[in-house]
Amino acid sequence: MRRRVLIPLLVLGLVAVCAILVPTGSAIADARTQQLQLQRTGAVEQVVQRARAVLGGTGSPATLQRYLERVHSTYGEAVLVVDGSGERLAEAGGIPRDAATERAVTAALRGLPQWTLPTVLPWSPDSALVAQPIATASSAAEGAVVLRVDQASAKRDVLSGWILAGVVGAALLVALLLASNLWTRWVIRPVLALDAATRAVSEHRGFDAAAVTGPPELRRLAASFERMAGEVEDALEQQRGLVADASHQLRNPLAAIRLRIDGLPRDDPESRSEADAVEGDLDRLERTVDRMLVLAEAEHRASSEPSRSPDRVCCTVSAASLVDPYRSALADSGIDVLASGSDAELPFRRGDLEEIVEILVDNARKYAGPGARVRVEVRESPAELLVADSGAGLAETELARVGTRFWRSETHRALPGTGLGYAIVEQLARANDAVVEVSRAPEGGLLARVRVVGA
Predict the structure, then answer these.
(1) How far, in Å, CA of 236 to CA of 345, rounded?
(2) pTM here?
(3) Phi/psi of residue 80, each to 5°?
(4) 373-380 and 336-340: which strand pairing?
(5) Helix or strand or coil: residue 326?
(6) How many other CB atoms are found less than 10 A from the CB of residue 272?
(7) Domains of the chain from N-terminus onward
(8) 83 in helix, strand or coil?
(9) Residues 237-292: tens digit of each pLDDT
(10) Rounded distance, CA 208 to CA 222, Å?
């Protein structure tokens, strides 16, 4: 999120700095060009005055030549003076009479000064020609002065000015980057705290989202979220505690009822039948209470232990070792067992894995029916446990309801059970960073896949 905020700020800052630097660079080049032109204008005017004296017969050509040599030694620039016919009067520095020089001389002899220097840029030519006509009293040009202006120093000055402006612009960008980074970090710090808080809530860890700094509105939002998460966690904890306490408190009354029933007379068949029916109901009720206690404990562990812990508890098991304790019971029910796969290391607590297998195998024993086959498979990559059977299975509309507490298929209502088995499996899987997926098995019955997330 910080990048999404910083990038537009930096783009706008870059545009603003460029909008300042481009006119600044142009102004630096224009100012240096004007300075160069003004400096050379004064020097050429001095040459023009001396050349006018020579052409008027009052000056000496030797004096003009010495002045031209002094100009050349001062500026390092070549200068040429011609008369009205274009013949050389004096020269210093050696200006070649090429096409560019001839054009400048011709224009000056026509009374058109050539003083328009192009803007000096770092990539401009090292020299440029300027020409000034030598006018008489009648305003007619009797000669011309041509000066080859050296632009190397001006180019260096322009480049230095541009570099300085670029350094200042880069410093502004760096300052903008630092200020934007600090400001953005301050603004989105509560948002990042909220993100960390939501992860902590999902992983059942503690957090403190209200202690961060930032805009007051976002700080209030973080504090509200922390209060809401605490209230939700308290409500869930109270709900789990109520289930556990209720299940635990029911044990003593159930035991007392069973003792009273055991003391009832069973002399006649009708009394014995009634007593047996009540004992059957008590057995089912005690089984339900026991499973509710197991479910409450599994929910507590799934909710209180941090998920996706980097230090996973691993165990090495095989499908055969997990299903061996139940082979006898399965065989008594007429169910064949197929345990495939070698030893595998799973990021699972062994006790939880054994309890999951017990519940799934017991469900297959009760609901698959005699003559069915149960397949148990353990895989290391990806880490998962599979239990499939070849029984009648469930309808497609019923598969989505597997795991709902106390839900049982209409076809299994007459069979013993509490409807809490798959709910317990899901909570035990959550406690080990795993998920439970129930689908139709290739054999025709149910396929329960317990898959470790992120292993």
Answers:
(1) 34
(2) 0.48
(3) -135, 135
(4) parallel
(5) helix
(6) 13
(7) 2-158 (3.30.450.20), 216-304 (1.10.287.130), 315-452 (3.30.565.10)
(8) strand
(9) 666 666 666 666 666 666 777 676 776 666 677 666 776 777 776 777 777 777 77
(10) 9
